Amino acid sequence: MIRKLDLAKNPEFLGQIGIRGSIARLLGWRKPETEATAIRYALESFQRKLSVKRVGLTYIVGVSFESADSEQAALILNTVAETYIAYQMDAKYNSTLRDETWIKNRLNELGSHASAAQKALEDYHKNRKDIASSANTVDAGVARSQSTAETQGELRDLVAAAESSTTALDNFRHVLRHGEAARQQSLPGFEARLVTEALPPLRASSPKGVIVLGIATVAGMLLGIAIGMLRDLSDRGIHTTGQVLRELQIACIAVVPRVKPDGVWRKLTIVFSGPAEKMRMKLASLESPVTSMRNGPVSNAMPSPDGERISKRSLSNRTSTDRARSRSIVRTENPIWTITDAPQSRFTESFLEIKLAIDTMNRSGKRNQVIGITSTQPNEGKSTVAAALALLMAHAGARVILVDCNLRNRSLSAALAPTAAFGILDVMTGAVSVSETTWTDSISELAFLPVGNNSRSIYASAVLTSEKLQKLFQTLREAYTYVIVDLPAVVPFADVRAAAHLLDSFILVVEPGRANIGVIERALKVCSDINELMLGVALNKADTNFPRIEGSCE
């Protein structure tokens, strides 16, 4: 069959001799295949694809073959049927030929024995007659009496042998006649014959498209449910406001949605807000704060009545004062400006909720003037939350200053005051005054105290615990209604613990799905001072369409 149809060279029947075998031979992992091995692999594949089963309770046998080629499948099935029938006919012919040969040889053998026995008996009688005619009459009585016994014995043996041979021959012939009659009277023998030839199917028998689609759909749903359940069980992140209260025992004061800085609303508000005002702000943002120091280095610093160290030169020089006023906060494509550009947006409303929580605490009698904004880990948007909250308070009419105390990552200073040459560290050393370092927004009058680009590298924790910084914050308390402080993240650094004595409350910024509950709990447990001053949690960068974000805050 394999050789007749040349299946050993068919790619469908190659098996391991195919692509994998070729790659293995190229890599030297397998020896070159011989023709005998190819035939064995083709035979194994043929046996897997061929199936034979009985049709019901009949004597009909159904044969099927699986193949990617319908014409080839029909050809193989017809060849299988023809080969089987030819084999059965050859087997029957050979069996009949062997039976006839054996019967013929047996009859010849039995006939020869019977003929030999009969001839021996006839020869014996003829010999006895010749002996009797030539015997002497004198001795006839004595000889007859002696030979009678011997003659009778031999005669009986010959007669018995002749009868036995004849009986065996007759019995064998009788058995042959009886067997032939029995075969003719018994049930007719069944012979294999082809009922119908195999034809190429009109459509593929497998795979069943509808069944496979149904199974795949159900399996996909079950797999999706299993993966979802596994993800929920393994996910230890914060996703809902209720989860914040349940897991951390801290109230969620706001859910801040994710805002794209180049969104359609931002573009429309920029276009219709007035080109003259935008141009003026752009020109003001290009002014460098270094211009106030062009007339010479700062020297002879002396403390002012309000605790600030103001340069004599800056006090006496009117030009330096005018240039200080030109330090305007840079207005870039930053999400914080959504506060002014889209006052009715969900982003602005979320910061109104934070301000409401702060005002509620103030009305209850607890001092809440200096507010620190921190997060569990970096890049959760705490600087954006701090700047947007300060901008909202300033637009509400309060005197607000935003202080960048993230001495390790000066991203807020780089965004709002990219050209600032001096900052909070220079104020602490007395090199410049607060008024010479502060940047302002011309519209909201928001003040911003940057870190500065020329500030030397020092230990952040040591700065945050220094008495000079405490005096500076005391000055800011007297000059401003609110002091919003941008702090580093809690987990990597100890800066937040060091700055706890300067603040009245903390707001913890958490990005949903990113912050791990266990990490937040360990951070709050280690920083016990923060936990006592915690105002609440703000979920930042939340997707408002995400079903796992609950709309209401606790």
Q: What does it look like?
A:
This protein is of the alpha/beta class and about 550 residues long. Strand 8 and strand 9 form a beta hairpin. An eight-stranded mixed sheet has the order 3-12-11-6-10-7-9-8, sandwiched between helices. The longest helix has about 60 residues, at about 70-135. It is rod-shaped and about 175 Å long. Helix 13 packs across helix 14 (about 380-395). The protein is about 55% helix and about 10% strand. It starts with a helix and ends in a 12-residue tail after the last strand.
Give keywords:
single chain, 554 residues, alpha/beta, 8-stranded mixed β-sheet, two-stranded antiparallel ribbon, 22 helices, 12 strands, 10% strand, rod-shaped
Distance between the termini: 80 Å
Quote the average pLDDT: 75
Q: What does the radius of gyration come to?
A: 56 Å
How much helicity do the residues have? 40-55%
The biggest sheet amounts to: 8 strands, mixed
List the helices and strands and how they pair.
Elements: H1 2-5, H2 19-26, H3 35-49, E1 50-54, E2 61-65, H4 70-133, H5 140-185, H6 209-234, H7 241-248, E3 252-257, H8 264-272, H9 275-285, E4 302-303, E5 309-310, H10 312-316, H11 318-325, H12 338-341, H13 346-363, E6 370-375, H14 382-395, E7 400-404, H15 411-416, H16 424-429, H17 434-437, E8 439-440, E9 447-449, H18 460-464, H19 467-479, E10 482-486, H20 495-498, E11 505-510, H21 517-526, H22 528-532, E12 534-542
Parallel strand pairs: 3-12, 6-10, 6-11, 7-9, 7-10, 11-12
Antiparallel strand pairs: 1-2, 4-5, 8-9
